[in-house]
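During the second year of the project, the team shifted from modelling isolated chains to modelling whole assemblies. The rationale, set out in the original proposal, was that interfaces cannot be judged from single-chain predictions alone. As a representative example for this report, we include one of the complexes processed in the last quarter. Its constituent sequences, exactly as entered into the pipeline, are reproduced here:
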Amino acid sequence: MDQPAIATESLSRQFGTFTAVQDVNLYVQPGQFFGFLGPNGAGKSTTIKMMTGLLAPSSGRIRILGLDLNENPIEVKGQIGVVPEDMALFGRLTGSEYLNFVGRMYGLDRETASKRASELLDFMQLAEAPKKLVMDYSHGMQKKVALAAAVIHGPKILFLDEPFEGVDAVASGTLKTMLQRMIANGATIFLTSHVLEIVERLCSHVAIIHKGHLVAQGSLEELRAGVQAEAAPAGASSDLVSGQKLTLEEIFLRIVGGPQTQKEELSWLG
Amino acid sequence: MLGINTAQRELLSALAAARWQMFMHSLRSVRGKLEMFSRVLVGFLFTILAIGGAIGQGVTAGYFVSRGHTEWLAFLLWPVLLFWQGFPVMASAFSESPESSYLLRFPLSYRSYFLVRIFYALLDPANFVGGFWLLGITLGVGIAAPRLLIWTAIVLLTFGLFNMLLTQMIFVWIEKWLVQRRTREILGVLFFLVMMSFQFIGPFMSHYGRSSKTALTATFARTSAWQQLFPPGAAAHAIAQMGNAKWFAAFGFYVFLAAYAALVFSLLSVRYYAQFRGENLSETEGPKKTGDTTKPAPLGWNIPGLPGTIAAIFEKEIRFLIRSGPLLFSLAVPLIMAVFFRVQITSRGGGSFFSRSPIWAFPAGAAYALLLLTNLSYNAFGGDTNGGMQFFFAAPVRLRQVLIAKNLAHTFVFVIDVTLVWIAVWLLYQRPLLYVTLLTLAAALLVLPLDFTLGNVFSIYSPKKSNPGKFGQQRAAQLTVLASFGLRAVLLGFVGLVVWLCRLYGNLWLAGLIFLVLSVASFAVYASLLGYSERLAFNRREVMIAELGRK
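Output from the structure prediction step:
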């Protein structure tokens, strides 16, 4: 079996007395499109920040492409691309200046950085406003330029924290096309998203984190089979026993718990 | 209350409560407590300035009134006005205006929005100090002529209000002008013309600077008539006419002063209202016409001798600076100070210290240029908001490279500023002597590396989100500002001591040699502490990302 693209061993992180992530053991194989799911506050962003060197783990190890992140941070960072939650933009640069800057920060020469910046701006349909500052971009445009910056150096692994949040359908289509092309070319993608339909459509493998603990990990089929197997002996609801294929949303809700009951709803809301 | 309904009052009180809670939460950390301590200390210093100035102004005002020259109060009110308008720019390290665009999400009426903005504006130290000085003048007049006390209080309250509104009005309009390339170019040309006009100030002041006290008194008397056309003169004449029992004239001058305040209020309101309506100032151009071919992205800067990553960060820093009008504006302040000291006439009728000893004007200007770097070099990551700081930690670069690039950019800014100061001193006083210029540059070589070293540590230890595109939102943390002033006091004190001692021995070249030799040690300290700064940043990355990513 290939060396995992991403592997964490007993990864934990405490903030004071609060444990945000505890003993997470993740394995992502090269070429996988990996979805990392969890309810709000489950520890997704904390985990992704630790895996990209933005946050120090309290304990545990992270290996990226076989390299220990703590021991080889520069080498690892050179091989990954990141779109963090805040997008890591420099608002007072134009789109092309920003991409040029990022390209050179990742070691590209001036000519290559400029050429790739042009291609990416064209691909992302951002080339029409060359003098517009990034701070004046719409949210969707900022997402696109952040993604363009994350891939300008041709990373082997791409970490995306909520890449589709606030992105319109057209832009979302562009992003998906690009990500699928990267997977086809052998890259590994690790993404978090609340849009389960997108994860279901794009990802081959999924992990679910809940209250800081990794509660499920595997291919979609494995997760589906696991949920059905757990439900069967306990009396099983009709949709499980009928053999109907569970959606990722159903799997997710069964693992982390369903929505609030009517009793808990806010009566004063119109 | 000011025509605000109950719902709006509730909203304003909720905002005040939220800010109070934020303030209290900020005291939970050690850094927050140190920041609070620094604020108290700075507040104490401003109180001394305010009370000292108020006593001086009050005594002088009383003297003017008791001698029957009440209209001469204008000569006290002019400095108050100049201080009030100049201080927020000249000492931007102490001025702060909180971000208020977040208010727009709330169902706030324009009147409430305006009040909140004005309340924020009131927090500026210039208002505190200027207000105290006006109080001093009021009391001085009141003691000399008790029947004028209430009228003086009314007039000077209006004058104070005018000043407070004028500061905000100037800031919001300059912000608007500086944000657009065309108006920025026009201001650039104006700036150039002003620089050129410096050469006329020298002969002018040479003439008046040598005048005797009697001649100056006569000059004051002559200018008193036209001064009534301006707010300080109008305020002084309103008080003087009341003293002469000319009620209509007094009221007329007061109305004239109030009209100024109303005009400034209206102009300020135009900008505030535009912001209230959600105006977003930017150089954003419209979409390109279809059919235009896409141009290739321009190449990044190639700076000989610098690795690509450092050159890229240097380019980014300079581009940021060029697009940050208010920050650029503050860098022109040493020139304003040079003019200020040139036109200053002392009580003895002579010029300022620099008019009498012009050889020190250039070193002093260079030292002041260093002070103005505070917000840049001691809060080097302040502009890397919106996840910018995250980028530096996510990218495959050593943080020392980032620091070096930023320090180089700050050195570049310093060199530009010092060059402008050199030209200004030449035009205003005399061409700086060669040995003084070289001595100043040698001292800069000694001071800058040490200054940058401490600046790097504080940029990491105490980062503060800043907005270089807005006046009053560029300030470093107060603790940082105090530390920077402390270090500069030590360094510049040492430089001054060496120069003084070498001058005693009649060999200033020796001072230059000492500075050059010590600058080698200074560079060594800088280089050796880069590693420490890098480790500190690595350990504090979460705090830095959180602080600079704060919404």
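The CA atoms of residues 130 and 223 of chain A lie 46 Å apart. Chain A has ten helices and eleven strands.
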